[in-house]
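User: Here's a structure from my thesis project, written as structure tokens. My advisor, Dr. K., wants to see whether a designed sequence matches the one we expressed. Can you design one independently, without my sequence as a hint?
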């Protein structure tokens, strides 16, 4: 293959991600297209993350269930064509009910991802750090997790269950759901929008297993370092929109200067 294409499209390197997680905390910066994935890999990251909000945002859309499975799959394939890093993909609520989840897992795994996370919100979902979220019943999420696990063909492909219960049912509700989701076969748990370092600690101590932390700017969670999170028992930390927001800020400055000056010259 040409030197232009050094990824592993359609061949998820799931064993690599499993090994990384077993050795310590994995930092997975959010990428939103091929070039951002290339840049993250060049800077030394060992895994990358594609968020639903990143896919929507790059299309100029809000994170409100407006993107489709096909659009997420296409972006996954583009990224995996040029990057060999394990890719974790946000599949929102699985793009529907149990049968939809089965298809989603097959398609995402085939596209080259190494892991997915799926949440327990009602459609249409909201960004995890917004108010007014609604949750499906725990048994409904259990059915989705069981369907996801059954549908994967690679034993190392990771199905991570996200719970948004902290903002709706409190920390105890989030912990109870997480335990159910692990029993249903989830490979890991993603507790969204925990509000203090103490809550991150409590969740880890009471749930255990492979835990994913979301360090997004302007959210409900404190911005803890990867070292702190590792000490608290977390094994994956994602930064969904950090680079994307930085790019947008710089782009706005460039467009503003170009329009004002009529030239790229200062």
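Assistant: Designed independently from the structure alone:
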């Amino acid at each position: 293959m040409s030197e232009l294409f050094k990824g592993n499209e359609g061949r998820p390197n799931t064993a690599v991600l499993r090994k990384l997680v077993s050795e310590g905390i994995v930092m997975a910066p959010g990428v939103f297209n091929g070039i951002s994935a290339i840049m993250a890999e060049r800077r030394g990251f060992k895994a990358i993350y594609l968020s639903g909000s990143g896919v929507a945002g790059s299309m100029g859309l809000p994170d409100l269930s407006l993107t489709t499975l096909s659009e997420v799959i296409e972006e996954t394939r583009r990224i995996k064509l040029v990057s060999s890093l394990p890719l974790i993909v946000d599949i929102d609520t699985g793009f529907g009910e149990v049968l939809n989840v089965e298809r989603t897992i097959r398609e995402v795994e085939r596209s080259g991802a190494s892991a997915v996370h799926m949440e327990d919100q009602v459609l249409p979902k909201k960004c995890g750090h917004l108010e007014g979220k609604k949750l499906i019943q725990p048994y409904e999420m259990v059915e989705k997790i069981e369907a996801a696990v059954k549908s994967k063909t690679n034993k190392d492909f990771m199905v991570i269950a996200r719970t948004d219960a902290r903002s709706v049912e409190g920390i105890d509700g989030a912990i109870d759901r997480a335990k159910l989701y692990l029993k249903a076969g989830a490979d890991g748990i993603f507790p969204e929008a925990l509000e203090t370092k103490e809550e991150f600690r409590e969740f880890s101590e009471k749930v255990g297993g492979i835990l994913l932390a979301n360090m997004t700017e302007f959210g409900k969670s404190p911005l803890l370092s990867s070292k702190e999170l590792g000490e608290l028992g977390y094994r994956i930390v994602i930064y969904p929109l950090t680079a994307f927001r930085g790019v947008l800020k710089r782009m706005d400055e460039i467009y503003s200067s170009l329009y004002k000056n009529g030239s790229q010259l200062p």
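When you compare it with your expressed construct, this may help: The two ends are 42 Å apart (CA to CA).
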